[in-house]
Amino acid sequence: MNRTQEVARLRVDYQRELELGTERFHAPKRTECPWCGSSRLRTRLRTADLLQRKPGSFVIDQCRDCSHSFQNPQLTPEGLDFYYRDFYDGLGADLAEWVFAGTGSRKRYLASARALLPFGAPRRWLDVGTGHGHFPQSARTVHPATVFDGLDMSAGVDEGKRQGRIDEAHRGLLTDLAPKLEGKYDTVSMFHYLEHTIDPRAELTAARTVLAPGGHLIIEVPDPESAMSGILGRWWMPYFQPQHLHLIPLANLRRELESLGYTVVAVERHEPHTPFDITGAAVLALAYALPTADDPWHPAPPSGLQRKARTALFWSAVPLLAGMYGMEQLLAPLLRRTRLSNAYRIVARSGDAA
Fold it and tell me: Which residue positions does the secretion signal occupy (predicted)?
């Protein structure tokens, strides 16, 4: 079955779902900050799904007291299923594989793996939110004696094991699987994972459960205090609506880890920067401006003229996007040292008692 036939088949189910509206995919709107409980909230962002262009609107609110930013109203598990569908798997599988297996991604994986070198050689490492296991595959070149396992909700984790990228696959939620994995790992990684979770605090607690005493938790997340978020607004890629549910300031995450008995042993606000902000904004703007693609969440396929216009406009923009990307790579060493850096890393050691 080719893509056109697959889209036509899926369109029936998507349209049946969309006839019921997208409001049902959201939980009740919060009136208090989920991090500190303050009722002093402000709207930070209103946007749509700029990448897949699935129907729906999304709001990110920010707490005026602790600066935590969060999707409000937040998507329910059913809503998350709808908006994740055909993004990393299904119709989106090939593009996701191209992104996660690309040269830029491999460079980031290697840098993240090297961040653990000062703390000894890990024996057994659990990569949470591993997807298809691309990080462990790269990290083996830095830690060749380490056993790498992966955990993810999707079937990609099983594919990662089949491809030999991970040694053992755990499919499900960390919060559900943690009791069975108690004390099994001396390293747990969460690379751009916490921002996707419904309850980040519960994830940190679950990580403490699976870590052996003295083990290390390494976290990388978007930095909501990046100046680029204000400059680019809704076009700042790390907002990544509707998938990113929480944007956690460094100080908040550090305090939470310490309250759970972790000792923060390293913080890095510059090196984890992903040099893609300008290019990403252009990609989002282009995706939003182009005639719609033949995707099943649109009521009807595009006309022949729309298809030709989309193809012509896309390829005409490729040289500009390539130039932007090259410029960002050249400027990355400078931008990493400024408030324009878009991500941060924390390494924390678990206490004597899990």
Answer: none
Q: Sign (positive/negative) of CA torsion 155, 158, 160, 166? A: positive
Q: Which fold has domain 93-274+343-349?
A: Rossmann fold (3.40.50)
The encoded tokens of residue 191 equal 């690379």
Average pLDDT of the chain is: 96
Instruction: For residues 297 and 7, give the distance between their C-alpha atoms in angstroms, rounded to a whole number.
Output: 9
Query: What's the CA gap between 186 and 213, in Å, rounded?
Result: 8
327-332 contacts at long range (C-beta below 8 A, 24 or more positions apart) = 327/278, 328/275, 328/276, 328/277, 328/278, 328/279, 329/275, 331/275, 332/273, 332/275
Number of CB atoms found within 10 A of residue 273's CB: 24
Distance, CA of 10 to CA of 15 (rounded, Å)? 9
Q: What is the pLDDT of residues 245-275, one digit of tens each?
A: 999 999 999 999 999 999 999 999 999 999 9
Strand 168-171 with 147-152, pairing = parallel
User: Residue 25: what residue type?
Assistant: F
Evaluate whether 157 touches 180 at the Cβ level (below 8 Å).
Answer: no
